[in-house]
Design brief:
alpha+beta
Length: about 90
């Protein structure tokens, strides 16, 4: 299920609880998450979908999110920029 690429989620459990992360992909029941700072795009965090809260299911229009949805690679700085823009626009 690649439809979740580009979603923005908030960690609900674990050491990173409360952190905004971007979904890079999915492996079975696990989501691959990165924020570009603590979790790099090259080594995303594997987290069960039940351990995150969906904050934005693709309705946040940002060039980096569009790249993810198209299946293109993104850099860590691009991820940080997109999550920062999401926070700034009032996305919590």
């Amino acid at each position: 299920m690649q439809a979740c690429r580009g979603w923005i989620v908030r960690s609900a459990a674990g050491r990173d609880k409360g952190t905004l992360l971007c979904v890079l992909g999915q492996e079975g029941e696990y989501l691959l998450l990165a924020d570009g700072k603590r979790r790099k795009a090259a080594a995303p965090k594997r987290k069960k979908a039940g351990h995150v809260d969906m904050v934005c299911r693709g309705d946040f229009r940002h060039p980096v999110i569009r790249k993810l949805e198209d299946g293109l690679a993104v850099s860590d700085s691009e991820l940080r920029r997109a999550l920062g823009a999401f926070r700034h626009q009032g996305g919590n």
